[in-house]
Amino acid sequence: MTDLNKAVASIQISGIRKFADLVTQYNDVLSLTIGQPHFPTPKHIKDAAIQAITEGHTSYTSNRGLPSLRQAVSAYYGAKSGVVYDAQTEILVTVGATHALDISLRALLAPGDEVVIPAPAYPGYEPLVRLAQGTVRYVDTATTRFKLTPAQLQTAITPRTKVVVLASPVNPTGVAYTKDELSALAAILAKTDVYVISDEIYSELQFDEQHTSFATFAALRERTVVIQGLSKSHSMTGWRIGFTLAPKKLTDEMVKVLQYSVSCASSISQHAALEALVGGGDDSAIMRAQYAQNRDMVVEALDQMNLPLVKPAGAFYAFPDIRPLQMTSQTFAMRLLDEARVAVVPGDAFSEYGEGFVRLSYACEPVLLQAGLQRLDDFVKKCHSS
Ligand code: PLP
């Protein structure tokens, strides 16, 4: 027993991290575990950071973030979604999307409040809910092609439900909701008083259809927090810049949490972020094109291996079903690493509803991906024949 905070003590180290650590013990591993673009941060963004240092922009900024950056956030996402958030009152600059999720949950939840999360899900959500004293209610989407259906949402909502966390495109499955699908979920939520946290961190990496922001649903605007950031769209994971776009009433609460937890995001990163949004509108196009090609390569390869797959529509993940090989996701990932020197993430890292699947990241050079898929193919053949 511990005399320390029980909510913290109950939190496990992420299954992704555990596996990534294990990988370092092997030589010659092709890692398909990476959760970030393999492209470097664009040069014009790096130059803007250097310039910010040279010019002495190294002090605290406003808690909410540089006014010029908030203005740029408003314009950038407003142009994409068609919904404009006020730079003064409705936008916060956070320390990555993780921090944006944290301040949203902490501002919204009271002890015992339930948070509905379609699963398999990004492993960051559950610990943040618990730290905010909420309770997670996962909804199994493994049987509904990894998308929450209106019927499932309706059933999951109880009098204790405070928030639904929706993501599109989804980590770890790569699926993305269509506008009609989101609209059907919004129609159900409109009849409740449940809030929506819409994690749109992969919005720029959606391949086939235009991304739909949950902000589009006007009836829910007062109860929606959009989570955004530059980690994926501009390959800036280490710069730690995220955003919340939410109504004033909520933003005024979230900024209190932000103020007393971090004061503000890094001033240097904020200047770089301003350049990313003002001068780097097309930065994600090259990644999107590359990852769409990589996606096609993965879909074809897994099809030939007879591993069932829901075709990813965005991000840079595929989540094949490994149940035909009759082993757990942990055993599969361990054996693949041991016997074929390819690293993937076991599906149970994304809640119990990810069991029977593995996450394969294709955020890498096509040659590396091809080599990894070849090794995977050899391994699958070997499993079938033994
Ligand atoms: N949300 C999802 C779905 C993610 O996959 C990630 C990172 O992998 C995050 C949020 C966190 O993003 P950031 O690095 O900006 O904190």
From TrEMBL:
Keywords: Aminotransferase, Pyridoxal phosphate, Transferase. Transmembrane segments: none annotated. PANTHER family: AMINOTRANSFERASE (PTHR46383:SF4), ASPARTATE AMINOTRANSFERASE (PTHR46383). Its cofactor is pyridoxal 5'-phosphate. InterPro entries: Aminotransferase_I/II_large, AspAT/PAT-like, NHTrfase_class1_PyrdxlP-BS, PyrdxlP-dep_Trfase, PyrdxlP-dep_Trfase_major, PyrdxlP-dep_Trfase_small. Belongs to the class-I pyridoxal-phosphate-dependent aminotransferase family. Its EC number is 2.6.1.-. Pfam families: Aminotran_1_2 (PF00155). This is Aminotransferase. Residues 28-375 form the Aminotransferase class I/classII large domain. It comes from the Bacteria. One of its GO terms (molecular function) is transaminase activity.
